[in-house]
Specification:
Blueprint: E1 7-11, H1 14-17, H2 22-30, E2 33-36, H3 44-58, E3 67-73, E4 79-82, E5 109-112, H4 119-127, H5 131-151, E6 155-160, H6 170-173, H7 176-184, H8 196-203, H9 224-241
Parallel strand pairs: 1-2, 1-3, 3-6
Antiparallel strand pairs: 4-5
Helix pairs in contact: 2-9, 3-5, 5-7
Length: 245
Amino acid sequence: MEENKKTLIASGCSFTHQPWSWAYKLKEINEYNLLNVAMPCQGNHIIAQKVIYNVNEQLKTKKSEEIIVGVMWSGVDRHNFFIDNNLRLENIDGWEENPTNIVENRKNWVIINSHWNTPLAKMWYQNFHTYVGAMIETLRNILLVQLYLEKNNIKYFMTTYMDILNKENETTLKHPEVEYLFNMVNFEKFLPINGCHEWVKINCKDKGFNKPDFNGYVGIHPNDYGHEMFTKDIIVPFLKNINVR
C-alpha cells in the first residue's frame, strides 16, 4: 500500500465485493489505499468481525487518523457458525469460499443463507431461525462495531445493501427485545438512504442494473454505473458533511 494515503477498510457482501463496487469507486475518488474484506453471501456477524480484526491489525502500524471504515450491512437472515474441525463444505454455485475466514488463513466460519438448498441451511431455517432473532443479532453486530470504532477514534460510515432495517416495520422494531437495541444505534453514521439497492433503483432506473446481473440474479446488484452514481451522489457528500477525507 502506498505511503501517506489513508486506508479504507470496506466490509460487506457481494454489493461491496464486486470489483466495480462503491468501495473501489471511493478508493479512486478519494485516493485511498483499499483493504476490501467483503465476500458474497456472508452475514453481518462475519462482516462485523472482519472490521474489528482488520482495524486491529492496521492499528499495529498506523495511527487511527490514517484509517477510515465503510460498512455495507447485509441480510439479517444470513447466518454463520464456528467450526473447530476438518469439516469442509461444497461451495454454493461455485463462487463462495465455505468455510471462510475472519482471522487470516483460518477457515473456521461456515456461512448459510435462507435460500440455499443444503442440509445445514434447511436444518437451521426450519428449526431455529426467527426474524426477530436475526434482527437482534444484526443490531448487536452494528453496535459492537460502532463501539469498537469510536473507542479507537476511527472515522467510519455505514449503510445497508438493501432496506434490511425497514424502519416502518413496527411489528419487529417495537418488539421489546429489538427496540432498545435499535434505539442505541448511532444512525448519524449511516448514509441518508434506505439501502443501496433502493437508491440505485430510484435514481438510476434501468441504467443502474444489468439483467441478469453478475451472478444470475435479475436486477439485484447495481452495475458499474449504479455504484459510480451511488458513490458520487451519496457517499462522497456524506463524508464531506462529517469532515472526513
